[in-house]
Amino acid sequence: MAPVIDIIRHAESYHNLFGPHVRDPGITPIGGEQDCAALRKKYPYADDVIFIIASPMRRCIETALKGIAPLLDEGQGIISLLPDLQEVNASPSGTGSPLSRIIDMYGEENIEKATVPEDWYLKGPDTRNAPDPAKVQARARSARHSIRNATRIAARHNPDAHTVVVTHGEFAHWLTDDFAGMTNTRNSAWWNCEVRSYRFADLENRDDDDDATLIEIDTPASLERRDSYLPAADTEERKRLQKQIAVLHVLGHGRMADMWAGQELEENA
């Protein structure tokens, strides 16, 4: 066997209910907590988890802390923050919080922050996180490289290791290079707390210029389950069209970025 990467979309968050005006929202106390409880029940690989890697946004950290970390032995549920996994858009709900505030909220004992700058969340046009298709694609590729590096380390401890990655629904499409289910009105086909499992096409490749391609594996029957509601991506033409739709969504986020910039940002409790 080879190490597995389990990619998870975050649990229900305040912005899923009330829209994009809330800055860096956490998960909701009803739907979000229920999503995490369901994730704890259905996730079967806890004994093999070596790393939990998450977007530094609150909803992803909380999903990791409440949905996966409780399944692990004491001291193993530390969340490694990876800014490349953050949300695509630049709305208040798509914009994170300073590292110091994250640490204040969740505690240094729960967070691995060594490579995260204080202003990791900035999304201006001159930053790597701006809602621009080329930058989103580059960020997804960089995230895959970071995850692959961690997975190689995990494999030294356990050849069947699982690396858990918690990110956002839209970015998950870019991370996996699979845009099935996107439409002009729907920017993600990932459900809250949905788990999809992958392996790297070449785990040992250390070339910084390769794509670090992920290949989805049918664990457990996730591909078959989605056949009923996702448009098939069975030809190159369909794959190109699906990605073009994803690009249009990012371009729309880019046009909205100026509107969001400088606005007064609310925060949920």
TrEMBL record:
This is Phosphoglycerate mutase-like protein.
